[in-house]
Design the sequence.
């Protein structure tokens, strides 16, 4: 059962139409749909307590009108109180009415709960609930959601979709007060709510206003992309409204109120009339604002175009079929089938989205528009073509552009085709369907404990083996790991091969394993991993509280599509995370020695690195690597998920590769512990070394000069005519350079960074045993000095920890290598030579110049010296 409410308080508006579109997805999956049109919410619509009459005929037959009951029985609750609260409390901050607000809020909440219990609500859709026309209803909804959700053990059962937040709806008149709107009910950060914004700009503004809310998704208005056509059922539309068959017809679907600026359309028709037979059809309720209707008809008469203006009344927003609507009368699509242009000359700051523009694009009709505040955000910046009014009234240039479009059938058809093609891409129904299916309508399994996030880009060759290894996971006793405990989230990063088709086929052939395919349009493994983890985290919070796994910790697990996982990878990781209570679980990564047969020097460098890694990870828990790690969902959400950083490479912004390390640093900086799980093993694909061997030797496998980016390391992508890079061993000189870059990259990140994040580790017995008391105490003193000197308050991004960890390396290199030799073997050797610029610095000034060297961000020499991004 889906119950929804619109704060628009009109029988038909863009908000109501969007409710119907969203509700359709629920209806198609068997939900019964109820809607409260909000008459008893907004005072300025003059519909308070008005009984429903013929509103149902304007809506699909599967929508039942079901308003909050008995609001007229609440003593003192009426339109005059709503107006007074808006003017006194919200706008002026006078709180004397707040006791009355609280009393009525409680009474509305009780009636809401009664209704929801009576009809058996399981989903709620709120449209525009944060528009503070009536804070009593907003607060009552929030309270009812909290009580009802807890009472029935529901997860995120509410979609709260704001079309017109304060900054989008008439911000200039100040009727909601001033930012940060202290007397508007703040967004409720609840496990029962999922907020939806219309576009990225709206989400940014919402998050700035309500930074405490973490679950905000973008759900743009969607439009069925079907060209509106004249059919036998609607062929008489023009004749029924007195519009000649040969006249050019401009359509305007809108409420007839001053803010919609229909006067601009009338003046446009008057300017076009001398050169063509043009008509304007205005679809809207002429009775909503009688004064505005009289003003417009007087304007038309004064301009001599009364016979050219048709006020056609409400049209059914029939988004599913053309012809006469089920309730009788004409539909918007009937109008669009006969229209030559659709107009949307609204005022600058009134309309936040512009549904008529989207409807015109989807129906294959060209449009004209004013340059309203968010036009570029929603349509203009996407390449749609249309005449745009940038002045208060139509100018001769604008009129000429409109006339040219009306008179040129070829141009009009080409414009419509261009816009329709873009509309399918940006506003097709699949946009909403995919988001709702992912986050709401395809629930997570009640027993699911882990989501394995697998970013993929053209991995058709490797994917079957990877999916087989995930499907064949074993439990700790060797039996098959219960497939209900985990799911796979495959994030396609714009693959052009058969990756997606293969994944979907695999899912169909293995129905006992949940496999979800998500798309991430921004190229980069970091972006794909972030999207997959956000998707999994969001879905996991929607599980009902009564689900068997709801009371247990939930984990997001990262994997790579070219690496194989061992059979007990997940079960061992799950056991370690549950047993330790750690926020992050770090897997063991290894290469198979047989892949490097005949290449002893290369294998020696790799094997020494792995030995050092085992020592450091055992001491400090290690840091996550995208090839395999787990993070507890609450820890993931607490830091805002994986953050994407950008750097410049050859004059273009590129996303930073070290998202996994940065993420681990952020979690650790907020107190999250890490656990190393050596039994949870991941085999690294040797192509990572083979294909970039020259870069490995030079210490710039993933970039240089401080820029760390993902390279395409697949053999088929290199410059050797499509053939794999030649396999060879290293010379002695190359092996030495490769090892030196490997150990220089390893040591600051794995032995020094953990201490910078938590210097108290130097007081623990295992760490002191490794370093020895003298070195441990020296490091502790020096870290305190550096932290004080640099005023380091957090180590969130990777570049914030590089400088201090590099400095500690140079200052303590001899001692650190001595401890590594003792723990991992004498073949670890000694520190590589210093950079030339430091080699001749007097010892008494060494620390000073190390600081300058490590801070030299302009040249990036320090980054290059340390290998910049890892080797093995």
Sequence:
């Amino acid at each position: 059962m889906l119950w929804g409410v619109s704060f628009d308080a009109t029988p038909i508006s863009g908000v109501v139409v969007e409710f119907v579109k969203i509700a359709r997805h629920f209806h198609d999956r068997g939900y019964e749909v109820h809607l409260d049109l909000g008459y008893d919410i907004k005072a300025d619509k003059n519909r308070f307590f008005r009984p429903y009459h013929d509103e149902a005929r304007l809506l699909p037959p599967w929508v039942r009108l079901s308003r909050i009951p008995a609001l007229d029985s609440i003593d003192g609750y009426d339109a005059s109180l709503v107006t007074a609260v808006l003017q006194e409390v919200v706008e002026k901050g006078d709180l004397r009415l707040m006791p009355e607000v609280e009393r009525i809020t409680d009474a509305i909440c009780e009636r809401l709960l009664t209704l929801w219990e009576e009809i058996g609500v399981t989903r709620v859709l709120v449209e525009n609930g944060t528009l503070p026309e009536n804070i009593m209803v907003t607060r009552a909804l929030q309270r009812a959601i909290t009580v009802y959700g807890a009472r029935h053990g529901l997860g995120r059962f509410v979609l709260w979709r704001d079309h017109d937040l304060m900054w989008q709806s008439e911000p200039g008149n100040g009727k909601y007060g001033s930012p940060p709107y202290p007397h508007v009910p703040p967004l409720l950060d609840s496990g029962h709510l999922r907020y939806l914004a219309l576009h990225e700009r709206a989400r940014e503004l919402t998050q700035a206003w309500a930074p405490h809310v973490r679950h905000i998704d973008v759900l743009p208005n969607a439009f069925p992309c079907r060209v509106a056509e004249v059919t036998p059922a609607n062929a008489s539309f023009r004749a029924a409204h007195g519009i000649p068959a040969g006249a050019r017809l401009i359509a305007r679907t809108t409420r007839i109120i001053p803010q919609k600026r229909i006067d601009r359309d009338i003046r446009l028709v008057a300017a076009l009339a001398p050169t063509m037979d043009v008509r304007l059809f205005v679809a809207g309720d002429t009775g909503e604002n009688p004064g505005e209707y009289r003003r417009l008809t007087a304007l038309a008469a004064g301009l001599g175009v009364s016979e050219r203006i048709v006020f056609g009344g409400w049209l059914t927003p029939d988004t599913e079929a053309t012809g006469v609507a089920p309730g009788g009368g004409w539909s918007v699509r009937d109008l669009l089938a006969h229209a030559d242009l659709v107009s949307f000359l609204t005022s600058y700051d009134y309309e936040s989205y512009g549904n008529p523009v989207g409807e015109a694009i989807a129906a294959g009709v060209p449009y004209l528009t004013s340059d309203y505040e968010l036009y570029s955000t929603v349509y203009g910046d996407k390449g749609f073509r249309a005449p745009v009014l940038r002045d208060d009234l139509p100018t001769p240039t604008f009129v000429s552009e409109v006339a040219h479009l009306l008179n040129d059938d070829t141009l009009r058809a080409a414009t419509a085709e261009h816009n329709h093609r873009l509309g399918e891409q940006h506003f097709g129904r699949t946009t909403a369907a995919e988001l709702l299916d992912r986050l709401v309508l395809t629930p997570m399994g009640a027993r699911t404990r882990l989501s394995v996030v697998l970013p993929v880009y053209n991995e058709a060759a490797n994917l079957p083996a990877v999916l087989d290894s995930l499907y064949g996971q074993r439990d700790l006793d060797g039996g098959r790991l219960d497939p209900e405990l985990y799911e796979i989230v495959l994030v396609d990063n714009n693959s052009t091969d058969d990756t997606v088709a293969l994944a979907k086929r695999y899912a169909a052939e293995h129905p006992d394993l949940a496999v979800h395919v998500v798309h991430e349009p921004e190229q980069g493994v970091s972006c794909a991993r972030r999207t997959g983890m956000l998707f999994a985290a969001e879905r996991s919070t929607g599980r009902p509280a009564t689900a068997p796994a709801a009371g247990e910790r939930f984990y997001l697990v990262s994997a790579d599509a070219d690496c194989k996982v061992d059979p007990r990878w997940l079960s061992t990781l799950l056991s370690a995370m549950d047993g330790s209570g750690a926020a992050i679980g770090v897997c063991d990564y290894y290469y198979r020695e047989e892949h490097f047969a005949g290449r002893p020097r290369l294998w020696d460098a790799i094997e020494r690195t792995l030995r050092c890694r085992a020592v450091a990870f055992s001491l400090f828990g290690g840091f996550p690597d995208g090839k395999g790690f787990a993070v507890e969902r609450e820890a993931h959400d607490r830091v805002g998920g994986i953050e994407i950083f950008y750097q410049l490479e050859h004059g273009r912004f590129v996303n930073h590769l070290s998202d996994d390390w940065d993420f681990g640093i952020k979690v650790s900086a907020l107190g999250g512990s890490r656990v190393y799980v050596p039994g949870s093993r991941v085999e690294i694909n040797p192509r990572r070394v083979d294909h970039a061997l020259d870069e490995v030797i030079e210490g710039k496998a993933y970039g240089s000069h401080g820029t760390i980016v993902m390279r395409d390391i697949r053999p088929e992508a290199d410059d050797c005519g499509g053939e794999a890079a030649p396999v060879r061993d290293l010379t002695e000189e190359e092996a030495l350079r490769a090892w030196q870059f490997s150990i220089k990259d390893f040591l600051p990140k794995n032995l020094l960074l953990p201490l910078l994040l938590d210097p108290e580790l130097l007081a623990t017995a295992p760490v002191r045993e490794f370093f020895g008391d003298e070195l441990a105490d020296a490091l502790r003193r020096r870290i305190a000095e550096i932290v004080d000197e640099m005023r380091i308050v957090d180590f969130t991004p990777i570049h914030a920890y590089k400088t201090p960890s590099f400095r500690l390396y140079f200052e303590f290199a001899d001692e650190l290598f001595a401890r590594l030799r003792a723990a991992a073997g004498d073949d670890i050797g000694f520190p590589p030579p210093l950079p030339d610029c430091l080699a001749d610095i007097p010892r008494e000034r060494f620390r000073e110049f190390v600081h300058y060297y490590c801070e030299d961000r302009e040249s990036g020499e320090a980054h290059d010296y340390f290998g910049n991004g890892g080797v093995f």
Observations:
- The chain has four domains: 2-218, 237-430, 434-598+615-639+659-684, 599-614+640-658+685-872.
- Residues 599-614+640-658+685-872 form one domain.
- The chain has 30 helices and 23 strands.
